[in-house]
Amino acid sequence: MRKYYILISIVNIGNRENAVARYPSNSYGRRKGRNLKWVYGISALFIIAGVITFIYGHPFDTNKEGTSTGLVNNNVDKVENKTKTPTVVKPEPSPKRIEIVEEPKISIIIPEPTAEPNVKVAELIDEAMLLVNATPSKIIEARDRLNEAFSMSMNSVQRAVIKRRLSELADKWLFSRTVFPLDRFCSNYQVMQGDQLRAISNQHKVPWEILQEINNISRPELLKAGGMIKVIHGPFHAKIYRSTFTMDLYLQNTFVHSFRVGLGLEGKETPTGLWSVKQGGKLIKPPWSDPDTGKLLHYGDEGYALGSRWIALDGLGGEAKGRTGFGIHGTVEPETIGTKSSKGCIRLHNGDVKKVYNLLTEVHSLVRVID
């Protein structure tokens, strides 16, 4: 209160001095009054400024805590730092991954060359062929009939027929730009502003390479907003039969194609059990360390064993549980396909491994190895 009183008093002094200056008695007095008026006025302003400074502190002190500009900048910096912190993507724990990823649901049947033909299987094959030859052709219904038959017990001849027919149909409904009515595995997708092919493929649990291929997209960055592309609802899975050196590939639970493979040597057998494609484990022509010599080899070096693609696997169950260092890869020795020839990995022809690479997706795709 005392501070405000001092301020008011000083202002009043200035007023009194100004009042006196208003009534000079002569010209000299007028000049003198005008001069005093300026002196008193300026003095009063300096005194007022000094008192304000004494009471409130320096009005331009930007180093004081609590200034609004400092708070805003600090908050912005904190928000920006939080925003720019990269999100580390980590693989989910194995048990959780098994729960959320649908495993192929077909029965594991070992071919029986001497078995009699299954009558029901024969009927389904005939029905499927009628649907294929109908006008218009009913590709999806035929596929579903054959896939139903594929889960049944049958002889090796019937099994070979079904696999061949399903593979032929896959070229029409899967590996083409056409989306057929009633197909639950493929659909059209309208590209939105800002969409990227990799993000679209991740959403559908398939590699971006297969979407690029079936849609004839020359470069992923050329994806145009408003355009329509075909998408596949994944994931793909694989079953590998050690007794027949065969890899059967499925889209969810529907058979797609079969490949011949090479497997582990005696004493270095490919472990049976359940695997998943490792997070970050899909590589093109990566450097490879020979487990026998420890020598680091690059693609094209003598002794380089991986071919053009590498798909690393994580062991989840059975003999595979906890095992690392295994994978699916190409080969520089095509004559070894169909034999026990690797150090435990799964070999494919280089052309075949490129196809598999474009279908299996990290984390979501499962690979089951059985006898």
Features:
371 residues; alpha+beta; Membrane-bound Lytic Murein Transglycosylase D, Chain A; 4 domains; 8-stranded mixed β-sheet; two-stranded antiparallel sheet; 10 helices; 19% strand
Question: Can you walk me through this structure?
Answer:
- It is a single chain.
- This protein is α+β, with helices and mostly antiparallel strands and 371 residues long.
- It folds into 4 domains: 1-85, no CATH class; 103-183, no CATH class; 186-233, LysM domain (Membrane-bound Lytic Murein Transglycosylase D, Chain A, Roll); 236-370, L,D-transpeptidase catalytic domain-like (Beta Barrel), CATH 2.40.440.10.
- The chain has helices spanning 2-21, 27-56, 68-84, 94-100, 119-132, 139-150, 156-173, 197-203, 208-214, 350-357, and strands at residues 186-190, 228-232, 236-241, 246-251, 254-260, 263-264, 273-284, 288-289, 296-297, 309-317, 327-329, 340-342, 346-347, 366-370.
- An 8-stranded mixed β-sheet has the order 5-4-3-14-7-10-11-13, sandwiched between helices.
- A hairpin with a 4-residue loop joins β3 (236-241) and β4 (246-251).
- α5 (119-132) runs antiparallel to α6 and α6 runs antiparallel to α7 (156-173).
- Mean pLDDT is 79; it is low at 1-32 and 51-111.
